[in-house]
Specification:
about 35% helix, binds adenosine-5'-triphosphate, globular, alpha/beta, binds magnesium ion
C-alpha cells in the first residue's frame, strides 16, 4: 500500500511541544501513515545571525523527541545529503524511497509566508500538498494554483528562539520541551545548560 507521508522540516534547535503537537495532530487530521520531522542540515535562510547547533545534535534531540511517538519519525536525509537543505530535493528523495506515496509538506504560517522564496517552490507545490498550521501573526493565504490546505491544531505560542533564551537566562523550559529532549540537551551540554 502506498504511504501517505507528511514532511515536517525544521531547524529544530531545539524541538519543542509546538512541533510535536503539530505533527501528531496533522497526522491524525489527514490520516497520514508517517510524519517525518526532517532535520535541516544547513538551513540556508537562517545561516546569518546566530550560531546553529550542530546538525547531528539537533538530529539527536529530534530522535529523542519522537522515539516513543507512533507515526512520527526523525529524518536525516538532509544531513546525509549534506550542504544546504532544499525541500524540493528532500521531496524527490522521499518519492524515490517510497514509490507511489502521497506527500504533504507541513509548515507553520511563518514558514508558509515565505514559501515563494524557497528554492524551486513550484516543484515543492507540484510534488506535495502544502499543509499550513497556525502560528502567531496573520494566517497566510497561498495562491490558488498551489494545492494547499490549513489544518487546525492546538495553537501553542512556543518557539525554539524563546527556548534558547530561556536556557541562556536560566528560566524554566519545563512543559515546553519534553523530558527525553531535555535529557539530550543535558548530556550534550547544549545551550549552556550545564553552565
Ligand atoms: P526558531 O524560533 O529558531 O525559528 P521555531 O520554533 O520556529 O524555531 P523551526 O525549526 O524554525 O522552529 O520550525 C520548523 C517548522 O515548525 C516551521 O514550519 C514552523 O512554522 C513550525 N513551528 C514551529 N513552532 C511551532 C508551533 N509552536 N506551532 C506550530 N508550528 C510550529
Ligand atoms: Mg522558525
Amino acid at each position: 500500500m502506498p504511504l501517505r507521508i507528511g514532511l515536517f522540516g525544521g531547524t529544530f534547535d531545539p524541538p519543542h511541544v509546538g512541533h510535536l503537537v503539530t505533527a501528531v495532530n496533522v497526522r491524525h487530521a489527514l490520516n497520514l501513515d508517517l510524519v517525518v520531522l526532517m532535520v535541516a542540515n544547513v538551513p540556508w535562510q537562517k545561516i546569518e545571525g546566530r550560531r546553529i547547533t550542530a546538525a547531528e545534535h539537533r538530529y539527536a534531540m529530534v530522535a529523542a523527541a519522537v522515539a516513543d511517538v507512533p507515526g512520527l519519525v526523525a529524518g536525516r536525509d538532509e544531513i546525509d545529503h549534506g550542504g544546504p537543505s532544499y525541500t524540493a530535493d528532500t521531496l524527490a528523495t522521499l518519492a524515490l524511497d517510497n514509490p507511489g506515496a502521497t506527500l504533504f509538506t507541513i509548515v507553520g504560517d511563518d514558514a508558509a509566508a515565505g514559501f515563494e522564496t524557497w528554492d524551486r517552490y513550484e516543484e515543492v507545490a507540484k510534488r506535495s500538498t502544502l499543509v499550513v498550521v497556525d502560528r502567531p501573526g496573520e494566517p497566510v493565504t497561498l495562491p490558488e494554483r498551489f494545492s494547499w490546505e490549513r489544518v487546525e491544531v492546538p495553537r501553542l505560542d512556543v518557539s525554539s528562539t524563546d527556548l534558547r533564551l530561556r536556557f541562556h537566562d536560566g528560566r524554566p523550559a519545563d512543559f515546553l520541551i519534553t523530558d527525553p529532549v531535555l535529557a539530550v540537551i543535558e548530556s550534550l551540554e547544549l545551550y549552556g545548560a550545564a553552565e
